[in-house]
Amino acid sequence: MNIMKKVGIALVAPVAALLAAMAITSAVIIAVGGPPVDFWRVMLSWPEADEIVNITNQASMLYLSGLAAAIGFRMNLFNIGVEGQYRVASYVGAIVAGTAIGPGLFTAGLAIVAAMVTGAVWAAIPALLKVTRGVSEVISTIMLNAIAGFLVGYLLLNYGQEIGNDRRTTPLEADTTFTGWTPFEPADGAIWTLTILAVLAGAAFWFVINRTRFGFDLRATGMNESAAVASGVNVKRMVVISMALSGAVAGLVWLPELFHESRTASFYSGSQFQTGLGFAGIAVALLGRNQPVGIAFGAVLFAFLSVQAGDLEFEHVDVSKDIVLVAQGVIVLTIVIAYEVVSRWRERLEQRQIQRALQRPGTPEEAVAS
Amino acid sequence: MEALLRRMTKISAAVAVLALTFAGCGRQDDDNGGDDDGNNTGSGGSVCESADGDGPKVGLAYDVGGRGDQSFNDAAYAGVEKATAEVDATCFEGEAEEGEPESARVERLRQMAEQGYNPIIGVGFAYSTSVNEVAPDYPDLSFAVVDGFDPDDQPNENVAYLGFSEHEGSYLVGVAAALKTQKDHIGFVGGVHNDLIKKFEAGYVAGAKSVKPNVKVEIQYIEESDLSGFGDPAGGKAAATGILDKGADVVYHAAGGSGSGVFEAVAAKGEGNWAIGVDSDQYLTAPADQQPFILTSMLKRVDVAALAMIQSVADGSPLTSYQVYDLKVDGVGYSTSGGFVDDIATQLEEAKEQIKSGEVTVPDKP
């Protein structure tokens, strides 16, 4: 009974939040004169085989991005800079991967390390600014996002390979890419091999945060900085290390796509690189309450909505795909609010239970209370 | 209390994220709203919803901005619209999202192919790779990519790459700019600093210098590599305002949907300043208060190319490989709506003939 009740309370918040988000999104659709019923019919239909593949691939990248953001959030560091970190890291990773410096697997490994190091270094800049000059990481990471975009664009334009109207990094050799796993027909596409990075990073995240001294220090700093300092945690060191870790994970975000095998060789270019994953990752981390399993749900939900949105025009639903962005934003808001409401409600519930127990005469609690 | 404060911080972070997301949306909505005021190509009145001929079934995959950008995508739509009248074509429209993954483009083209659309036209070079992915699976269908290129060494039998000599058209509006400037000082706003847009810049500067070798040209790009530079009216306005403040009085833009911001900036500066449009005849779609400032537009006849592609499919001999639309075949040119270039028509036609005859070779790199 008690377990049932606990599970029930845990599910109340997300279910209520999703229903509220659907209602608000429907209201927006009605307000702009669209058909909400058709919209949800298409959005909530079971995805086709190729869409399941796309959802899985997209979710893996969103998950990595969500983890990167969550590392910072767990110690109250707002790393809004995942967007810039994974952009710079993806560019460097693509360059290293395109050098064909050794056997395929070796080159790929080197590129992954290079991307992680680049992400870590880019993220360490705001961390160092924070601990030495007291610059808020929110401001500096947002500014570094803009700098990252211009820097990569500049480098690509001046040192990139010219192809038609575009510039790109040297394409990867065939032996540097991975075939992936084809669960359906070949035409439906493959789940990328490096989606495994998301699983590994998730496991590592759980282990480090929950089972190591470092993780304990990190959580302690996040919960109460002065208490952490009193118990001997070097907060400045923690800020730099956790931002760098966050950046290193951010460096992995786009790699599953870079290393997948396709008809056209893989490379980084303005049109191939997928932007926006960094910002989406912040929302995904918030959705998942910064917990590895929760973030996975958030990533799948966001990927599901984005991929399903592609069907709207083919089903002749006269609603802009931008509505999905609205839906995603509303979900984040309702989830945050719903958790707050439910936790207050649960606190009140517990208080009332204690009160009731205290008022009953002749129970041991009364003796304790008096 | 401590815990509540922590949650409050989280909530404010969530709000910040939302604000960022909506900032992006808001910009696009402004853009679309402007379109509806200016003309009637809002999301409602597409010919694709009414056409029911038995000619080619055209699949049209737009770039970011989509139909209603009054520029690049609208030019492609105009070609398809003509095809519905001339070869009884029907059509279906798909639109790209800003920052969408490559897989979304592949999925869009594949769904069109599955539903038997032929030809399938990708508007914008961003479709080059996705067409290369999809086309080999559908050898009986024809594909085309506007501004496109083959990203690998294996030629595709069923893909046409529709390219334009934008530098030649830009040369002509460069001549117009140099003849109209009172201060011997002109400007250029590019959407994204890539090789394609640098072609516009190169032609424009060469055209201006051919008339006035000492003319000063301000060059501004909105984005370095991010394709959002083609859908950012606020960025276009900031860039154009900067150029005007430096003392230029004619501004040419090659920035797609961001161009509406350029027109706004020039109109705000008032009499004696000129804006030059791009791709479509933008005088026709601009709001009435901006029309007196639109000197001319560099026409990139995406409509001509799209119509040619559809016609070739209707005739049973689809275009393939690289097709170039230059000044000789009227693939590029300039518009005369508004009558502001009537007084310099002789010089413009002369420059046109010089390029056609090969007497003048326009550089395609700055």
Structure description:
The complex is a heterodimer of chains A (370) and B (366). Chain A has 370 residues and is mainly alpha-helical. Helix content of chain A is 71%, strand content 2%. Chain A contains 16 helices and two strands. A two-stranded antiparallel ribbon of chain A has the order 1-2. Chain B has 366 residues and is an alpha/beta fold. Chain B folds into three domains: 1-38; 47-164 and 303-325, Rossmann fold (3-Layer(aba) Sandwich), CATH 3.40.50; 166-300 and 336-357, Response regulator (Rossmann fold), CATH 3.40.50. Chain B is built from ten helices and twelve strands. In chain B, α3 crosses α4 (128-134), α5 (166-180) packs across α6 (195-211) and α5 (166-180) packs antiparallel against α10. Residues 21-43 of chain B have low confidence and may be disordered. The chains are: A mainly alpha (370), B alpha/beta (366). Chains A and B meet through α3, α6, α12, α13 and α15 of A and α1, β2, α3 and α4 of B.
Question: Brief description of this entry?
Answer:
The complex is a heterodimer of chains A (about 375) and B (about 375). Chain A has about 375 residues and is mainly alpha-helical. Chain A has helices at about 1-30, 35-45, 50-75, 80-100, 105-135, 135-160, 195-210, 215-225, 225-230, 235-250, 255-260, 275-285, 290-310, 310-315, 320-360, 365-370, and strands at about 160-165, 165-170.
SSE layout and pairings?
The complex is a heterodimer of chains A (370) and B (366).
Chain A: H1 2-31, H2 36-43, H3 49-74, H4 82-98, H5 104-133, H6 137-159, E1 161-163, E2 166-168, H7 196-211, H8 213-223, H9 225-230, H10 235-250, H11 255-258, H12 277-287, H13 292-309, H14 311-314, H15 322-359, H16 364-369
Antiparallel strand pairs in A: 1-2
Helix pairs in contact in A: 1-15, 3-7, 3-10, 3-12, 3-13, 4-5, 4-6, 4-10, 4-12, 5-6, 5-10, 7-8, 12-13, 12-15
Chain B: H1 2-38, E1 57-62, H2 72-86, E2 90-95, H3 102-114, E3 120-123, H4 128-134, E4 143-146, E5 159-164, H5 166-180, E6 185-192, H6 195-211, E7 216-223, H7 233-245, E8 250-254, H8 259-269, E9 274-279, E10 294-300, H9 302-314, E11 321-325, E12 332-334, H10 345-357
Parallel strand pairs in B: 1-2, 1-3, 3-4, 4-5, 5-11, 6-7, 6-8, 8-9, 9-10
Antiparallel strand pairs in B: 10-12
